[in-house]
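Issue 218. Parser rejects a valid record. Input:
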Amino acid sequence: MDFHVSLVNGKDLAGEIYRQLRGAIVDGRLRPGDPLPPTRELARRLSVSRTTVIVAYDRLNGEGFVLSRVGAGTFVSQDVLRPEGSQRRSDGALRPRPVWDSIPLATAFDAPADFDFRTGISDSALFPYETWRRLMGHQLRASAVGRGHYGDAAGLPALRAAIARHIGTARGITVADDDVTVTNGSQQALDLVARVLLSPGDRVAVEDPGYAPPCLLFKSLGLKVNGVPVDDQGLIVEALPPQARLVYVTPSHQYPLGVSMSLPRRLALLAWAQRHNAAIIEDDYDSEFRFGGRPIEPLQTLDTSGQVIYVGSFSKTMLPTLRLGFVVTPAPLRRATHSARYVTDWHTALPTQAALARFIDEGLLARHIRKMRAVYQVRHERIVNALTGQFAPYLKVIPSAAGLHVSAAAPLASPAEIASVVQRALADGVAVQALSTFRVDQPARAGLVLGYGGIDTAHIDEGLRRLRRAFDDT
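Output the parser choked on:
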């Protein structure tokens, strides 16, 4: 093991080697069973005599911290226990900004569940792994990597072109390749937009109930976040705060209610943004999975004044673990967005970008979406039928014909009662989310949000049976 020892003071060299190795063993940097460097090698690296190192090792051996085996070397003793509460350094004087005390770490998927109805999950079991492995394998060859330089902060040109074609055919959005910036998921896209457009103290409007991570992101940047109520036509434009410089919406499939923003409401939102010189972020996170009705026009296609910034992700259509997304910005924001990406983390892994470009260009993404749309439609219908049937005494389905989740209101229950149902269901192996957990500023709503991307079709009935039992035990 290559272990760093500092001998800057030049005094008591054997003692200093002993103290630093002993400290590393006590605080856990060297674990039981780890080998120490051979005495001859460590002496050469430290420019000391081998005898000096042997004296230090003998002292550690005599105190039981290490064991020497002839012909094998010197190893940290298996009997060494790290004292409870030990740490490398004292707490120190540095403290984070207070805002970070209010932002929790993600724990939504920490606890596994036999029947997983949580949102934000795609069916990883049905992903074409062999095809993806082939594409990635090709990109990791020396001939594909080339000279190994860093890439364009905006993304691989081939992938930006592929994304532009994909959203052009799938969503009717006409954009130039240069308008696309590749990101590590939609959350980074939101971060880039906020960095480019807003300053601390600016106001952002979000849907309420809505998606929590963007709210936390905006708050961490020193922005003021206002929740705006949502009804059966989407965001209520009349309730927007006039000082808002940015409005974050999910108009095609509102998260979490699942409603689609009506055309009059869309036009009203665009007119509001133009009057107030505000930006709109349109998060089109799972609109590829539509099971009925006419396709919903993206806000971006209705925008004539360059107010809309379109954000997309491959987390739902492919895998969340790939962390691939993109943002389409109006031309005046293009260079600033690329610069923000450069100073944030420069670019997404180039082999992954190249593999995704091939995946799209060869028609594999479109084929995978078609296959998954059929699978998800069956699950959607099964859950909706159960909610309108066996759950009728407790829940009322909120109409939705797209996406990977469905929501239901609980008109006769309180948010606290539904939270209790969720806990009982989890104890019985069923993971489901309470609608109340998605509130921002408005009063919490009683209801459930059920995702169907992460649960096998064959397990839905049993999972719902257990969920109904949690209601009956109320």
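Fixed in the parser; the record now loads. The first helix runs from residue 13 to 26.
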